[in-house]
């Protein structure tokens, strides 16, 4: 049998250690994601690490280190497709970026395990878990620090409420007025409200603005008789 000719107990033991290490370290990374009820949890991260280890180990056994490096490059690019599946866009907000990055790191842990770099794989897994846990309080602390509008990159919106008959005229007026103040408009969304009014929501191209300038623009627009309500807001990404 060909199996008996290709089977070597030492090589098999080496592969078994690589698989076991990748599975355990991937599960350790995924446990934190599972605890936080993320899309890709314990099993997903464990299988990503195991799969990466299996492909790298197979390439190394069949063709040596050079081919293993080639397979690692494929793992790096290929895991991006899996990571894209956990990224979701909800309106202007994007969720799942951290989970996708964690999957990418799990694949790196598996690649280390597949090349018999056990210490490096364990160290990387510790760093990944630390990044997802120890850095969380730092992120929360930074998010609680108030920032002036001119200091933060964000998405700015200017909203006007009017009657349907005035929509076309106010849309042009809003665009011209914002561009005059050097705040060009990326797009204007029109929303029909149940009280027979129309809400126009302009998204600005600028990612940094001054609160005082936006307040001045809103005050000017709110004085018009055909504008029932005017406001501005900013949305920052997590």
């Amino acid at each position: 049998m060909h199996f008996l000719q290709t089977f070597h107990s030492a090589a098999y033991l080496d592969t078994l250690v690589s698989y076991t290490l990748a599975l355990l370290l991937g599960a350790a990374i995924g446990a934190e994601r599972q605890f936080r009820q993320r899309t890709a949890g314990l099993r997903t991260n464990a299988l990503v690490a195991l799969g990466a280890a299996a492909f790298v180990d197979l390439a190394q056994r069949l063709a040596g280190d050079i081919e293993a490096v080639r397979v690692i490059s494929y793992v790096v690019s290929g895991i991006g497709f899996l990571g894209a599946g956990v990224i979701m866009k909800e309106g202007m907000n994007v969720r799942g970026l951290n989970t996708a990055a964690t999957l990418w790191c799990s694949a790196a842990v598996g690649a280390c395990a597949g090349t018999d770099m056990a210490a490096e794989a364990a160290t990387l897994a510790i760093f990944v878990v630390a990044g997802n846990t120890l850095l969380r309080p730092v992120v929360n602390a930074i998010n609680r620090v108030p920032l002036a509008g001119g200091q933060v990159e964000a998405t700015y919106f200017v909203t006007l409420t009017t009657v349907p008959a005035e929509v076309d005229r106010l849309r042009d007026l809003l665009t011209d007025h914002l561009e005059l103040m050097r705040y060009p408009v990326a797009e204007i969304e029109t929303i029909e409200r149940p009280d027979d009014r129309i809400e126009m929501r302009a998204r600005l191209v600028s990612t940094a603005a001054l609160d005082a300038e936006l307040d001045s623009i809103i005050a000017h627009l709110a004085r018009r008789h055909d504008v029932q309500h005017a406001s501005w807001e900013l949305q920052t990404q997590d």
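Strands lie at 88-90, 93-95, 155-162, 185-192, 198-204, 229-235. The first strand starts at residue 88 and ends at 90.
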